[in-house]
Design a protein that fits this description.
about 550 residues, two-stranded antiparallel ribbon
């Protein structure tokens, strides 16, 4: 005990001496900088804040939680009997979707910071007023994009228009009508100060016109629509299209890896091509994929197809939409997979090749467009895997009609033609890729125009825009002679699969329930969709818990 007391006494003296020296040093220390968060950003480096908003969009457009599954053309990558809350609406609850909410609000918060700093805290010279206005315009357009992503999913959301300065819990939701009004206000304020031909990766005037066209088009279907919303949407789509003719390059050329910065792309999220915020961390190439390395002859690290990071697959209905003369099919999906390494088999058990060896370049898997007859199938099964159009979701080999012993070598429980249009040339096992993500394309703008004109009762103009998209794909002019909303939805499926938010499009057109009941396999088998509940997503539970009770949940959750 005495030793302990002595140590306490010595330690106390040392502490006093150290504190005394520290105080003297502090008193004598000079202040070398007066930089604060308020004055660090100047007119010379203010664009860094704007670039930060673009960077935050990456997380929005590499998150596919509520975009594809649970629709007519995309389903859960599981057997027919598998359950998925997002796909078949069974047990969809507020524990799902936090990333959608938080990622878009991150964009909004950073955009608010830009607007506040540019308007109130940065001293601008007369020569740089244009840079101020351009920065604010970009921030408002991107804030509108974030709010549009949210309102389509959740209905009315919290409209926060100020830079976050403190922790708050008293957020309350605005109405859906108020949210749309704010989005329109932001975009209409932004468009005059955006550039027609900005640097790669920046939000252009035409991109904003495309977005505003879709905003008006979506509002046109609601109970709070204004009488001319369809017409306004059509006029904006025409402005966004401008004089560009999508037929000047093929669909395959648009998605050529070496042609990612091309005139059809109105706005893209930059990744690995030296753009505004270029980096290598995209996962787009992992969409609608199998773990192809589970097939013999395909290596995990060197195969050209990539890895599957998501539990989503196209539906059989999607594949059935491609006409024989539709050039988009070959550019969109792989119907044949080839070996990239030498591999061997046990011929007595599960080997498809007589010589028990697969060489690089050999066919490993074939997905015929139309079902093969028995003799054709038998011939091909001696050499490689074949999955008929009605076999994609069967799972275990015993459940595949006509399956032979060779299927037991494959552990994939679903087998389907994987996507090609997002193939990358620079990725690794962690699914990091360098391909840019297209957000808006002029072909999509034509389809917005077709839908807007159709809603406005202008059938001739609707057909004109629909046929422009179709002609590029098939080479046939004026193929559509009449038009329905289903024609537009089918053409959107073929042209924009994996790009546009399919769930939001089906919701706005009032076709979601009808088309999932017709075409989504798991929904047909055991779906639990309730139109009184599932046309809105649940507000994330974390957000409700952090609020003071002012943030209300959507009905039914």
């Amino acid at each position: 005990m005495k030793i302990f007391n002595n140590l306490k006494y010595i330690s106390g003296l040392l502490a006093i001496l150290m504190l005394s020296n520290a105080c003297n040093d502090y008193i004598e220390e000079e202040i070398y900088s007066d930089i604060t968060s308020e004055n660090f950003i100047t007119q010379d480096n203010a664009d860094q804040l704007v670039v930060g908003v673009y960077s935050s969009l990456r997380e929005v457009y590499r998150d596919y939680t509520f975009e594809f599954m649970g629709t007519d053309i995309f389903a859960s990558k599981g057997e027919l009997f598998s359950f998925s809350p997002t796909n078949d609406y069974f047990n969809l609850n507020s524990a799902i979707g936090l990333s959608v909410w938080s990622n878009n609000y991150s964009v909004i918060a950073k955009a608010n910071t830009v607007i506040n700093r540019f308007e109130n805290q940065i001293s601008w010279s007369d020569a740089n007023i244009g840079n101020r206005d351009y920065g604010i315009a970009q921030a408002k357009a991107l804030r509108a994009l974030g709010y549009f992503n949210l309102v389509q999913q959740y209905g009315g959301v919290v409209l926060e228009l100020e830079e976050p300065q403190s922790i708050r819990t008293d957020y309350a939701r605005s109405t859906e009508a108020e949210t749309y009004a704010q989005i329109i206000t932001d975009l209409e304020a932004a468009i005059p100060n955006l550039l027609s031909n900005p640097d790669t990766g920046r939000f252009s005037k035409r991109a904003a016109q495309h977005l505003l066209a879709e905003v008006y088009l979506t509002r046109a279907y609601t109970s709070f629509a204004e009488s001319n919303d369809f017409e306004t949407a059509a006029a904006l789509a025409e402005q966004a299209i401008g004089n560009y003719d999508i037929r000047s390059q093929s669909f395959a050329e648009v998605f050529d890896y070496d042609n990612q910065v091309n005139d059809e792309v109105l706005f893209a999220i930059q990744w690995g091509n030296g753009g505004l915020t270029a980096d290598k961390n995209n996962n787009k190439h992992s969409l609608f994929m199998n773990q192809v390395f589970n097939y013999p002859g395909i290596n995990r690290t060197t195969n050209p197809y990539g890895l599957s990071g998501f539990g989503t697959m196209p539906t059989p209905f999607f594949y059935s939409l491609f006409a024989d003369n539709d050039s988009r099919e070959d550019a969109t999906i792989h119907r044949v997979l080839f070996a990239d390494i030498e591999d061997t088999y046990d011929a007595d058990n599960d080997g498809p090749l007589p010589e028990d060896v697969i060489q690089p370049g050999d066919t490993v898997v074939y997905y015929p467009k139309y079902a093969l007859d028995a003799s054709e199938l038998a011939d091909k099964l001696n050499r490689y895997y074949v999955y008929q159009p009605d076999q994609y979701l069967f799972g275990l080999p015993d459940n595949i009609p006509g399956a032979t012993y060779q299927y037991s070598a494959n552990i994939e429980r679903t087998n389907f033609p994987i996507f090609k249009k997002f193939d990358d040339q620079d990725f690794n096992e962690d699914t990091e890729g360098a391909r840019d993500t297209y957000v808006f394309r002029v072909a999509g703008t034509h389809l917005l125009a077709a839908e807007a004109y159709f809603g406005a009762g202008n059938t001739a103009s609707a057909l004109s825009h629909l046929n422009i998209v179709r002609e590029r794909a098939t080479g046939v002019a004026n193929e559509y002679t009449s038009i329905t909303i289903d024609d537009i939805l089918n053409e959107r499926a073929l042209e924009l699969a994996g790009e546009a938010n399919r769930w939001a499009v089906l919701k706005r057109t009032g076709k979601l329930e009808e088309r999932i009941d017709l075409y989504n396999p798991q929904v047909i088998d055991h779906g639990a969709f309730d139109a009184n509940k599932h046309l809105l997503r649940p507000i994330p539970a974390n957000e409700l818990q952090l609020s003071d009770g002012s943030l209300e949940q959507n009905p039914g959750y």
